[in-house]
Specification:
two-stranded antiparallel ribbon, 9 helices, 180 residues
Length: 180
C-alpha cells in the first residue's frame, strides 16, 4: 500500500509570535477572542460556557458539570498572564457568560477571515490551532509536560505530546545549550 499518509512528516500547526501579532492586527473586532484562547489554551466550547463568576483576578476556573461537560470532564484552573488579562478587559462582562452567543461555526469563520487578512497559511486557520499554540509555546518556554497536560485538561500524557511541537530554531538552540 503506497498511499498511507506519513503523519510524522506533516508540518506542525501552531502560530509563531509574528503570526499571532499579524492575526491580532488583522482582527479589529475579534483580536481579544484569539488572544484569550491562545494564552489560556481553552477549547472553544469551554470559552463559550465560561461564566463571569469563574473568572478570578489571576486565574480562570474551567468547570465541568453534567449539563455543561468539557472534553476531559474535569475541573481545572488556568492562570492568567498579562496578555490574557488584556484580552479579558475587552469583553462585555455584564451577562452571565463571557463569550457572546454566536454559532460555533461563526467563530471559525471569523478566524478564517482574520487569518486570510493576516496572510497566515491555510493549514493554520483552525480555532484548535490556537490551543496547539498554547501547548507548544509552554513547551518551548521549558514548562514540564505534566504541567502542560494539567493546564490543557488532558487525562493522558500521550495527548499532551501531540500538542508539544518544537520549532527547528528551538531544537537547534537546545543542542547548543550543552557542552560535553
Amino acid at each position: 500500500i503506497e498511499d498511507i499518509p506519513d503523519n510524522e512528516s506533516k508540518p506542525v500547526k501552531f502560530h509563531s509570535n509574528e503570526d499571532l501579532q499579524k492575526l491580532y492586527d488583522s482582527s479589529p473586532n475579534h483580536w481579544h477572542w484569539w488572544k484569550l484562547m491562545v494564552n489560556t489554551g481553552m477549547r472553544l466550547g469551554e470559552l463559550r460556557r465560561l461564566k463571569i463568576e469563574n473568572i478570578k483576578d489571576d486565574y480562570i476556573e474551567i468547570i465541568s458539570t453534567n449539563k455543561a461537560r468539557n472534553k476531559s470532564g474535569k475541573y481545572r484552573v488556568v492562570g492568567l498572564n498579562d496578555d490574557a488579562k488584556i484580552a479579558l478587559s475587552e469583553f462585555d462582562k455584564s451577562g452571565e457568560f463571557l463569550f457572546p452567543e454566536v454559532w460555533r461555526s461563526s467563530v471559525g469563520t471569523a478566524l478564517t477571515r482574520c487569518c486570510k487578512r493576516a496572510g497566515i497559511k491555510k493549514g493554520k486557520w483552525g480555532v484548535h490551532v490556537l490551543r496547539h499554540t498554547f501547548g507548544s509555546h509552554l513547551a518551548m518556554a521549558g514548562v514540564d509536560l505534566a504541567s502542560i497536560g494539567k493546564l490543557m485538561g488532558h487525562r493522558d500524557i500521550k495527548t499532551t505530546m501531540i500538542y508539544v511541537h518544537l520549532t527547528p530554531d528551538h531544537l537547534r538552540s537546545a543542542v547548543k545549550s550543552i557542552s560535553l
